[in-house]
């Protein structure tokens, strides 16, 4: 049993015994909540259960606290003190603290992994950028956050599917084809202009040039509609392939790629027919409208235009209907902050179809601003366009980019310091964490070079040789990792794991500077080896959730 759970259970049992003994009256007492005190002098854990129970017990918190403490005779508890208005502070026996090390060393890389709950099905859909060009820095934040959230939820025991919704239908694909066509003609010496809503990126020129390099001017003789159809398919396949490759290089992988094209026309028609059948859609001025005002929207929304062409909302209704039909208990969409007003419409459409809109959770990512030399960076030096994710990776590396994207809550604007992300210093948080991991391997190497060996099992460790404050603080921090995973998963907050890893690395570096692992006393040396091995396992577990590598040397 984890240390915190052990204490919570002990308090609950003591409370029950006090009630049974008649010291406290019968009643529905609140759940025991534990916190880690801000100062070590207040113990390992503290609870305000006595204050929370005053109304139930009809007596003072101090008397309630005394009744609980009098029932807490446990071998793992050194002492319990009543403080202030009725707080109870708990000081644990070191032997129960050492149990954490045994658990970590026994579990290995599975430490913190909750048992898979097959019924807790979650789908996370993220990035879902149009396949019309390279991913940019804004997409990078969504990619890093989304994939870290998937890793986190899986570590917390949820059954998760990661999905990419490919926006491969509609006007943007026609504009892609027209843009490639314009560049193709231009490169062959024929005057041509990019359409008003076309794509101006250098990658469009590269696509057109690749067509010329392969087939020359063979498509000039083709009727324009046929040429556009060919260029659409060719560019789409190329852009989607590049998009997959860019995401894989960023440690982002999906279980399912869902094509919007598969919704046209049948699934969209079926969703619209269902809305009409339910009286939630009506025809007006030749168009079909969703009664979104029934669900708090400021106006009803067109889902089929008067020319018979579905709107984006119609496709999204069919897509989300498909998600519900696949039976997920929770569906999480990660969208850009500019989609804020769109959330209510999609939820309204699901409610109109008879689904529970609370099952659909939409998380909004705020903007990313890049800084170099303290100044904002907006454009690529190479192309004059927005900076791509690939360019960012080339400059700072995948690990730094992922960590910097994840280390702030998604609902706050992120200022990304390029100089800090590249620096090999303790001020760079990802370097600081990875250096802690690599430092442990350097300890192993020193021991092996001195003729020693790294133990494969730890059953004969003399644990009570670990008495230094730096050692005990490390162990207590690692003991909190499983609960931190559960809290971060519930809050959809992978940045909590980034902060946890940094705090653990800080405690390790402090330990390293005060406590030498290699010792004449071999019992102490082995105990400290066990300790740093547990730290290595826990740091690696944090970095795995974040999608960041755990290097053996730096």
UniProtKB/TrEMBL annotation:
Pfam families (alphabetical): Arg_tRNA_synt_N, DALR_1, tRNA-synt_1d
Domain of life: Bacteria
Enzyme Commission identifier(s): 6.1.1.19
Reaction catalysed by this enzyme: tRNA(Arg) + L-arginine + ATP = L-arginyl-tRNA(Arg) + AMP + diphosphate
Keyword vocabulary terms for this entry: Aminoacyl-tRNA synthetase, ATP-binding, Cytoplasm, Ligase, Nucleotide-binding, Protein biosynthesis
Ranges that cross the membrane: none
Domain DALR anticodon binding residue range list: 433-554
Residue ranges of the motif 'HIGH' region: 129-139
Record keyword Secreted present: no
Gene3D superfamilies (alphabetical): Arginyl tRNA synthetase N-terminal domain, HUPs, Isoleucyl-tRNA Synthetase, Domain 1
GO molecular function: arginine-tRNA ligase activity
Annotated ranges, domain Arginyl tRNA synthetase N-terminal: 5-92
Family according to the record: Belongs to the class-I aminoacyl-tRNA synthetase family.
Binding partners and assembly: Monomer.
Full protein name: Arginine--tRNA ligase
Organism: Megasphaera hexanoica
């Amino acid at each position: 049993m984890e240390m915190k759970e052990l204490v919570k259970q002990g308090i609950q049992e003591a409370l029950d015994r006090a009630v049974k003994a008649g010291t406290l009256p019968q009643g529905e007492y609140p759940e025991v909540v534990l916190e880690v005190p801000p100062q070590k002098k207040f113990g390992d854990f503290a609870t305000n259960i006595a204050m929370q129970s005053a109304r139930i017990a009809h007596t003072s918190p101090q008397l309630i606290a005394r009744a609980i403490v009098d029932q807490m005779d446990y071998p793992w508890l050194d002492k319990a003190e009543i403080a202030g208005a009725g707080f109870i502070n708990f000081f644990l026996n070191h032997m129960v603290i050492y149990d954490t090390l045994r658990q970590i060393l026994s579990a290995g890389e599975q430490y913190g992994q909750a048992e898979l709950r097959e019924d807790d099905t979650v789908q996370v859909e993220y990035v879902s950028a149009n396949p019309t060009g390279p991913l940019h820095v804004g997409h990078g934040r969504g990619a890093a956050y989304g994939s870290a959230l998937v890793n986190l939820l899986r570590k917390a025991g949820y059954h998760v599917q990661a999905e990419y919704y490919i926006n491969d239908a509609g006007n943007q694909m026609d504009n892609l084809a027209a843009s490639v066509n314009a560049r193709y003609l231009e490169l062959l010496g024929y005057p041509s202009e990019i359409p008003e809503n076309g794509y101006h990126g250098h990658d469009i020129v590269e696509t057109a040039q690749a067509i010329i390099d392969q087939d020359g001017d063979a498509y000039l003789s083709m009727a324009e509609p046929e040429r556009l159809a060919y260029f659409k398919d060719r560019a789409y396949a190329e852009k989607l392939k590049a998009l997959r490759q860019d995401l894989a290089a960023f440690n982002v992988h999906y279980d399912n790629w869902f094509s919007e094209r598969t919704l046209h026309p049948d699934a969209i028609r079926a969703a619209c027919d269902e809305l009409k059948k339910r009286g939630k859609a009506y025809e007006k001025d030749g168009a079909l409208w969703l009664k979104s005002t029934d669900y708090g929207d400021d106006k009803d929304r067109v889902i089929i235009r008067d020319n018979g062409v579905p709107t984006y909302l119609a496709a999204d209704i069919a897509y989300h209907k498909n998600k519900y039909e696949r039976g997920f208990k929770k569906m999480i969409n990660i969208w850009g902050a500019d989609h804020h007003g769109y959330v209510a419409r999609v939820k309204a459409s699901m409610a109109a179809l008879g689904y529970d809109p609370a099952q659909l959770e939409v998380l909004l990512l705020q903007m990313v601003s890049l800084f170099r030399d303290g100044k904002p960076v907006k454009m690529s030096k190479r192309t004059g366009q927005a900076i791509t994710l690939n360019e960012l990776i080339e400059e700072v590396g995948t690990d730094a980019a992922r960590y910097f994207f994840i280390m702030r809550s998604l609902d706050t604007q992120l200022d990304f310091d390029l100089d800090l992300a590249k620096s090999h210093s303790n001020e760079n948080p990802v370097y600081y964490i990875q250096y802690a991991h690599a430092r442990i391997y350097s300890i192993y190497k020193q021991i092996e070079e001195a003729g020693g060996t790294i133990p494969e099992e730890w059953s004969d460790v003399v644990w009570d040789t670990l008495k230094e404050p730096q050692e005990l603080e490390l162990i207590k921090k690692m003991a909190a990792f499983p609960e931190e995973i559960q809290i971060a998963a519930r809050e959809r907050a992978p940045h909590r794991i980034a902060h946890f890893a940094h705090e653990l690395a800080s405690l390790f570096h402090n330990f390293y500077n005060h406590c030498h692992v290699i010792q004449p006393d071999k019992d102490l040396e082995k105990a400290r080896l066990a300790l740093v091995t547990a730290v290595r396992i826990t740091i690696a577990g944090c970095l795995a959730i974040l999608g960041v590598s755990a290097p053996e040397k730096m």
